[in-house]
Structures are given as C-alpha cells and as structure tokens.
Write a structure and sequence with these properties.
- By secondary structure, the protein is an alpha+beta fold.
- The chain has one domain (3-11, 18-94): Arc Repressor Mutant, subunit A, CATH 1.10.10.
- The protein is built from three helices and four strands; from the N terminus they run ββαααββ.
- The chain has helices at residues 20-35, 43-50, 65-78; strands at residues 3-7, 15-19, 82-84, 92-94.
- The strands form two sheets. It has a two-stranded antiparallel ribbon with strand order 1-2.
- Strand 1 and strand 2 (15-19) form a beta hairpin.
- Helix 1 (20-35) crosses helix 3.
Length: 101
C-alpha cells in the first residue's frame, strides 16, 4: 500500500503518513467542489457536496469520508493551497496556489 506524507496546519512540523490512494481521491474531490463554488464553503457544505462524487470502492456509502476531508483540509492548509475564513462558521477556499496547480 502506497503512503503519502501529510502535514497539519494546527501542529507545525508534525507529519503523518496516510494511504495515498484515499488521500489523492479526497484531494481531487475537495478541489473539484471548491473550484466550482462561488463562495467559500463550510466543512458541512464540502462534505455534502463531496459524498456523491467520491469513488464508492474507496469510500463505500461515504465511510470515513469525514476523517479524510479533515486530513486533506489540514494538509492543504499547511501547504498553503487552502485557506480558511477568519469568521465563524469557518469556511474554506482554494488559494491561488491550489494543490492541483
């Protein structure tokens, strides 16, 4: 099983290794949803928009999707590819240096 190293914006300098296939699938789904959004989205909005487009073989019936959304969100933020708003509820948007760029 291939692994990918992810970072956590809330814990600078700390990294973890996770399943690369699931990470990349979730990253692609998050980028797709946010690129097509007119405004920044909340976590709940992202999750609702992502569930129908996730590969069912990796996330059957959305299993573990919430955990993977958070892992990818924190990693993309740590790498400067995703930003959060300063107001609540928190909303997320891709930066000019989006992960797919």
């Amino acid at each position: 099983m291939d692994k990918i190293t992810v970072e956590n914006v809330n814990q600078p300098g700390k990294s973890s290794r996770v399943d690369a296939t699931k990470y990349l699938a979730m990253c692609e789904a998050i980028e797709t949803v946010l690129k097509n959004a007119d405004t920044p989205m909340t976590y709940a909005q992202i999750k609702q928009a992502i569930l129908p487009i996730l590969p069912q073989q990796l996330f059957p019936a959305g299993a573990t999707a919430g955990w993977w959304i958070k892992v990818v969100q924190l990693d993309l933020e740590a790498k400067g590819n995703l930003a959060r708003t300063s107001y609540k509820p928190l909303r997320f948007h891709l930066t000019g240096s989006g992960a797919g760029d």
